[in-house]
């Protein structure tokens, strides 16, 4: 029989939540420690990248990316419905849902026919 148990990731799913670059990853395990949903486990050996065991359980919070000491070693692949982006006309800046430093709220009041009318007075 086998004397050693080995963990392997689930087969590739359409929801490939976390992508780790083995060339850049130092195997420090900080991403494993901060993961809120315990998606990853430490690599099989010292200084090896972690294994993503449960990609379908990922919350896409980005904690693993923000705590990684090496930029680009780990990234989150957001589902298509979360890849919403927009561009500010005045400055040309690009933004997306879930970004680290979101832009400030729009200071302009809403315009249009229903602006300023309370919901209870709305006509059917």
Approximate shape: elongated
User: For the terminal residues, how far apart are their CA atoms?
Assistant: 72 Å
CATH class: Alpha Beta
**C-alpha Rg, in Å?**
21 Å
Helix count, DSSP H or I runs of 4 or more residues:
2
CATH topology: Alpha-Beta Plaits
Tell how many strands the DSSP assignment holds: 6
Mean pLDDT: 78
Largest beta sheet, briefly? Answer: 2 strands, antiparallel
Strand percentage: 5-15%
Instruction: Indicate the multimeric state.
Output: single chain
CATH architecture grouping: 2-Layer Sandwich
Number of domains: 1
Q: Which ranges are low-confidence, i.e. pLDDT below 50, for 5 or more consecutive residues?
A: none
Determine the structural class based on helices, strands and strand pairing.
mainly beta
- Main-sheet strand order equals 1-4
- Helix content class: under 10%
Order of helices and strands: EHEEHEEE
Short description:
The chain has helices at residues 30-34, 63-67, and strands at residues 18-20, 40-41, 51-52, 74-76, 85-87, 94-96. The protein is mainly beta.
């Amino acid at each position: 029989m086998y004397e050693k148990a080995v963990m392997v990731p689930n087969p590739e799913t359409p929801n490939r939540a976390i992508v780790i670059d083995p060339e850049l990853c130092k195997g420090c395990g900080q991403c494993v420690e901060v993961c809120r949903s315990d998606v990853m486990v430490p690599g099989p050996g010292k200084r090896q990248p972690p294994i993503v065991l449960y990609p379908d359980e990922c919350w896409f919070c980005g904690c693993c990316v923000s705590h990684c000491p090496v930029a680009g070693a780990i990234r989150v692949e957001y589902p298509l419905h979360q890849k919403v982006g927009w561009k500010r006309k005045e400055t040309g800046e690009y933004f997306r849902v879930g970004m680290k430093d979101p832009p400030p709220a729009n200071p302009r009041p809403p315009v249009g026919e229903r602006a300023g009318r309370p919901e209870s007075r709305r006509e059917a």
